[in-house]
TrEMBL record:
InterPro entries: DUF4245. This is DUF4245 domain-containing protein. The chain crosses the membrane at residues 39-58. Keywords: Membrane, Transmembrane, Transmembrane helix. Residues 1-28 are annotated as: Disordered. It comes from the Bacteria. Pfam families: DUF4245.
Length: 215
């Protein structure tokens, strides 16, 4: 026996075929929407789990400290290649050697040692450069045209002393220059006078030796 159509309470009468089809379509839409939300949440949780694994499972640590530069060894190799003696000052632990290489400076090739304070809280740097066969104007070219203001004696060597304006001289504030045989040694950078004199004193014996070899 056929069943009477179900009376829908909201309508107070049985649904028409169109209303039944619309109700089922809406139910299907709501179901699919809920499934999409569940899938999105599940995908997000999986992504977060992968990120957590990467963060917590991958080993962490500080990078290893850079090996210190052996200035004497590098100077010997470079000197053999250039066919000349190169300065290799022995400095206190207050300094770190950032680089030591032959490069072009002020239109001349130069052996240059770049120094920085070991104390990270102390600003500044110094470059100790040995200009190969450099003429008298070489320091001025390196120092953006600066001229020496007087002469000071450090380690038995007479040095031309420069007072530089950082705004005009490429952020440089101090410099010393002295002839060393056929070459010229120039120490310059941003530092106080004590630091400048310390490096000059460390180089002085080698400047004297280069002078004596050229005589």
């Amino acid at each position: 026996m056929a069943r009477d159509p179900r009376v829908v309470a909201e309508l107070g009468r049985p649904e028409t075929p169109d209303e039944t089809a619309a109700r089922k379509a809406e139910s299907s839409r709501v179901y699919r929407s809920s499934q999409n939300t569940r899938n999105l949440v599940a995908a997000l949780l999986v992504t977060l789990a992968v990120v957590a694994v990467i963060i917590f499972a991958v080993p962490r640590g500080t990078p290893p400290e850079r090996e210190p530069i052996d200035v004497a060894a590098v100077a010997e190799r470079a000197g053999n290649a250039e066919g000349r003696e190169l300065i290799a000052p022995e400095l206190s632990d207050d300094w770190i050697v950032n680089s030591a290489a032959v490069e072009d400076e002020g239109s001349s090739r130069a052996w240059t040692i770049v120094l920085a304070p070991a104390d990270e809280n102390q600003p500044g740097f110094l470059r100790a450069s040995q200009g190969f066969d450099a003429d008298e104007a070489w320091p001025a070219r390196v120092l953006a045209g600066a001229a020496p203001v007087d002469t000071v004696t450090i380690g038995g060597v007479a040095w031309d002393r420069y007072e530089l304006d950082p705004s005009r001289n490429g952020n440089l504030s101090v410099a010393l220059a002295a002839p060393a045989g056929a070459d010229t040694v120039l120490i310059y950078g941003t530092a106080d006078d004590d630091a400048l004199q310390e490096v000059a004193a460390a180089v002085a014996a080698e400047v004297t030796a280069l002078r004596e070899e050229s005589e």
